[in-house]
Amino acid sequence: MSRMDWQSRTGRPLHGEIVVPGDKSVSHRALMFGALAEGVTHIRGFLEGEDTRATAAILGTLGVRFDTPAPGERVVHGVGLHGLRGSTDNLDCGNAGTGMRLLAGLLAGQAFDSTLVGDASLSQRPMRRVTDPLALMGASIDSADGKPPLRIHGGARLKGISYQPPVASAQIKSALLLAGLYAEGSTEVIEPHPTRDYTESMLKAFGWPIEYSPGKAKLEGGHRLTAVDVDVPADFSSAAFFIVAACVVPGSNVRIKGVGLNPRRTGLLAALELMGADIAVENERSSGGEDIGDLVIKYAPLHGVALPLDIVPDMIDEFPALFVAAAVAEGMTTIRGAAELRVKESDRIASMANGLKACGVLIDELPDGAMIRGGSIGGAHIDSHGDHRIAMSFAVAGLVASAPIVIADCANVATSFPGFVALANGLGFDLSDSVPSA
Ligand code: S3P
Fold first, then answer.
1. CA-to-CA distance for 253 and 249, rounded, in angstroms?
2. Which own/partner pairs from 140-148 qualify as long-range (CB within 8 Å, at least 24 positions apart)?
3. Atom of ligand 1 nearest to the CA of 24
4. What distance in angstroms lies between residue 375's CA and the mean position of ligand 1's atoms?
5. From 3.65.10.10, 3.20.20.140, 3.40.50.2300, 3.40.640.10, which CATH number describes the 6-22+233-432 domain?
6. Assigned CATH topology for domain 24-231
7. End-to-end Cα, the chain, rounded Å
8. What is the DSSP string of 15-56?
9. Distance CA 63, CA 78 (A)
């Protein structure tokens, strides 16, 4: 058993106010646009996670200077659209699909060659979804059968395209828009379902002309980015574990402060409300163009639902947590239309189904989802498959399990949620390093 195995046990009712770390999607983008801008960008609320630090380290290798006045802050000394310097070093994205796919778009338009690599999980994730449309724009990228490493040949003359991605993916859209900054003519992305629009809103804030509406974005190459300060909201996807935890532990009452409430992220709230949850949004306000607010969650008994298909893309990272809510809810929850879960940091349908089965939950795995019969959760030893969101979801399951849940391979929680264990225990979890059996 490695040191990063956890044991999660029933704690007390969850009570208190917490702030979760900064949004991962916004933090990656703020670094990239800050780097390509003219002037100095001050980022506050930056996620000090391994994923976003990997992106900062790559941009540093490419000649961008960063200062860290305090944890959660970065001052980015922009080098301008054409100011990056090439490097023959492998550019290591770690575990981060967002880092790799967005950087593929950004680097496709540079004058120099680059090689993007990732960890064992990222090295198995599909990259053709970005390299194919980038090739249509004129980029030259070699991959290992559609998987990392990505060898990006510099000096390509990119031209804009109009592209309809086959899957709803903010990463695909963002990669193309980043390449579009360097392309001749206009680059347009028309999505099968609207996805998070942080790339579009940040481009606008950095002064790049862009037309966008839900599901559509269009820009032209040849403009410039001007530095602007970025306030990163707290990450809804990190809040999700505590939202579900407070929904399922009797007697809980939790406030999560200043959470980003971009409508393309909050499908979990709609899903839990359909299941009977008691969640209120208070202090709603706007920060840096994004809606934020406090979430106040009180325990309420949940019941199963057939999840409406149209909320699936709006809660794509929250499914592992929802599986736990469904395992506790009375009756059957049916999840369909979520095949994308199979190509995340792990195959999240299989990871959750196998883990919940080990805990005695009745669950049928479907190609694009699962049918989960709620009831009681038992103790078990489960494997997170090195996937941060699987590890945190089973930490929540342990709160209501009849015996401890031991979760193997939790180190990658640091990719998105540094400090999770301390924050969780402060709220009433009983989460500890697992003691190896003799
Ligand atoms: C992200 C988009 C989503 C999400 C990921 C972050 C982004 O991925 O799962 O955690 O920042 O653009 P897809 O675009 O693959 O759906």
1. 9
2. 141/104, 141/108, 147/123, 148/93, 148/100, 148/116, 148/117, 148/118, 148/122, 148/123
3. 11
4. 31
5. 3.65.10.10
6. UDP-n-acetylglucosamine1-carboxyvinyl-transferase; Chain (3.65.10)
7. 11
8. EEEE-PPBPHHHHHHHHHHHHHSBSEEEEES---SHHHHHHH
9. 10
Q: At residue 260, what are phi and psi to the nearest 5 degrees? A: -65, 130
Could you check whether 6-22+233-432 and 24-231 share the same CATH topology?
yes
**pLDDT per residue over 50-109, tens digit each?**
999 999 999 999 999 999 999 999 999 999 999 999 999 999 999 999 999 999 999 999
235 is catalytic: no
Q: What is the residue extent of each domain of the chain?
A: 6-22+233-432, 24-231
| Cβ of 174 less than 6 Å from ligand 1 | yes
Judge if the beta carbon of residue 235 lies within 6 A of ligand 1: no
For 5-62, how does the pLDDT look when each residue is reduced to its tens digit (9 = 90+)? 999 999 899 999 999 999 999 999 999 999 999 999 999 999 999 999 999 999 999 9
Task: Give the contacts of 265 (CB within 8 A, at least 6 positions apart).
Answer: 196, 236, 237, 314, 315
Q: How distant, in Å, are the alpha carbons of 177, 237, 437 from that of 1?
A: 44, 28, 8
From 169, 191, 344, 390, the mutation candidate for ligand 1 (largest count of ligand atoms within 8 A of CB) is: 169
CA angle 14, 18, 24 (to 5 degrees): 120
Report the distance separating Cα 338 and Cα 356, nearest Å.
Answer: 18
